[in-house]
User: What shape does this take?
Amino acid sequence: MVAEEVKSVEVYEVGPTLTFSMGPQHPGTGHFRMVITVLGDTVVRCDPDPGFVHRGEEKMCEYKTWITNIPHLERPAILDAAGMVYPYVLAVERLMGVEPPERAKYLRVIMAELQRICSHLYWLGLMGVFAGHATMYMWCFGDREYLVDLTQLIGGQRITHSYFVPGGVRNDAPAKVPKELVKEFRRYYRMMLGRDYGGEVPEDFRRYALAVCEFFDTRLDEYYRMLLDSSIFIYRTKGVGVLRREDAVSLGVVGPVLRGSGVRSDTRIDEPYDAYPYIKFNVPTMDGCDSYSRMMVGYYEMKESVRIIEQAIEQMPDGPVKLKQHPVSIRVPAGEVFASAEAARGQCSFYIRSDGTDRPYRVKICSPSFRNLIALPHLIRDVRVADIPIIYWSLNYWPVECDR
Amino acid sequence: MGIAQAIKRTLMPVYSGLKHVFLKPYTVKWPYEKVPNLPEEGYRFDPKAGIGYPGSKGRHVLYMEKCTGCGSCDLTCQNIAEAITMTHGFDVLIVLDEGCYESFKRSMPGIVEAVEALVGSFSAEPGRIEYNSLSSFFWAPTDTRQVTKVEGGYEIRLNREPIFDARAVEVLHQKVYPAVEKLKAAGWELRKLDAATESASVELSRQDFTFNVLVRKIEMGYKQNRRSLFPSIDYGRCVMCGFCVDACPFQALEMTGEFEISSTSRRELVYTPTMLAKRPEDFNVTGVPPELNMIERMRMIFRRLVW
Assistant: This one.
């Protein structure tokens, strides 16, 4: 199939071309192949070939019960487990016709935003690697530790926590933070920012989380000076992989890719769910439409996520965090439902049909990476070979999430 | 873009990176150093309130005095990772009648060979390293310490620790049959007597010797768990989601912060109920590990002091 198309390219007298595969052994993130045709150093054509990490998540959902689906649904995007499970949980709740308690809504928002930051840090760090700037990767992963620790304090695990369940969350946030961790954080704070934390770092969970947010916000400014405002990075990414506004809309891309093309679209604002209506935040957009704009949208989103976490922690009411229900076996009435939530890579949607038994009849996942993949052949065209990694990763494409 | 901005954009990254040359490295040399980032408790679930308590989701701890063997955890895990199996503890015994035992005591070559072959297959139990090669010394044919007298004969217990498995036949297949294959070549004949869930036995015979190999369930003696059925967890499969803890109606399962459960063989990752019942002592240790030598120790302590 591919060979024939290459021949047709040759017929149109574009000169001697060369076709090769980029991947499928991990071209950056996950197993994914791009069949690339080049003419000299210019890419003529790019055929993305997903499917190497297809796991049959949708089929698997039909064989597991409503609650036991949660651990495996986290796996497609482990860095963003909350974003992936969020729409599933919302959909099941809508089918059941229940509303989670207020506190659970805020806890979910905190968890989702923490994971959004962690996912974006990975994006930013690897963007540094692809642009030949390995320091960024180390910095991102060093600072990510304290956010992951917060995730672990709340959810018990660093990334795949199985924290959300239909009807709330599985446990409340802890009251106290381990003393040793607080000590370590103070030391790290002093080392990184060159000044002491104002006053004693508290062991109280709320105030500790706020301290971490404040620390991370300051570090983000440093990232801007280090990578995003450096001339090398700007030369590598500005004007590379331009996805015009009207193209972005007609291709149907989502998330930071869409917002990087100047469209203000965010599920958290458009169809607010859980505690997002009570929280004030901006949806950053950039008009550059290029790789730089997309990365900057990701950067500003991290800043906004910090603001969201701070507000959520301050506004969080007391009370129960879960409805009274059986812990592992719930029954969902028959019906069909569609729900979407804003995952780190964009809008993630679930369509679920239930026939009233203890497991779903059909689950359809529409993941953000799959919707952004369509832009790849349009972007990798008439660019240099050296720009391929930059453009590829500026879409924040995650093969496992795409293949499901 | 002015010249000043270009210079700023070139020099500022260098400056912000260069600062870090003069800082202490913040890499943590795990496992020699540990980060105290774990919650102080393990995840547990209160079935009455229907809510979990925050904590680490590491390896489980099983309270055998609470477990009723209902299998709720097994049922839940079958939908997630299939890591939990409900298991009985088994003993593998050689049952000799009076005549055989007398011949065995007098070191008659046929019977001694058979017993030694069976004992040999248990001398190195999987998952454990045999440090003491002398241990086989105690299995010399004249050693009668392992032998208990029962009604109508004598029993030799082959395993040192209980063997946990779902069915007795599996124990027979995995533990006894490899040795029996060797015996068959030496002219022994095998006859199956009983192959049930809770007990299994075979009869081995050659000429005038006939004895039984019996796999027998161990009664643990817990009042609430008369069947002596407990969960074993395969950490090669477990995803640490903690839904088994939620599913347990008796708070018999909890999770701890222990996460360093890697091993060099697949079998060692299967934790038996007795292994699960042991609580990890202190999973949030931050001190210098004891296996380091003096110089490394001093370096680690020095690093800590300087910070």
Notes: The two ends of chain B are 43 Å apart (CA to CA). The CA atoms of residues 3 and 9 of chain B lie 10 Å apart. Chain B is about 30% helix and 20% strand.
